[in-house]
Design the sequence.
């Protein structure tokens, strides 16, 4: 029985992608009635800048992947954007 429960849990975790968690995060931010401009920025962070992480299972995303993503944004000259994106992304 425990083996079957472990298998179900593993399958569930593998289906929990970054994009699903990000959508939940954005919904919670919307429910808190954040300013329109703030919501636009958060959506841009999640939908555009973090797009390479969208299909990855959330429990498999590593610190190195997030650091690589942040460095790409920073190297494009958007240092403040990289800093704010880091505040939006979940901790691995």
Sequence:
């Amino acid at each position: 029985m425990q083996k079957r429960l472990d298998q179900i849990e593993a399958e569930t975790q593998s289906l929990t992608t970054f994009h699903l968690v990000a959508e939940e995060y954005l919904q919670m931010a919307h429910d808190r009635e954040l300013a329109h401009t703030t919501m636009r920025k958060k959506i841009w962070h999640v939908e555009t800048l973090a797009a390479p992480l969208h299909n990855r299972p959330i429990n498999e995303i590593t610190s190195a992947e997030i650091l690589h993503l942040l460095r790409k944004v920073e190297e494009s000259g958007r240092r403040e954007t990289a800093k704010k994106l880091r505040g939006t992304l979940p901790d691995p």
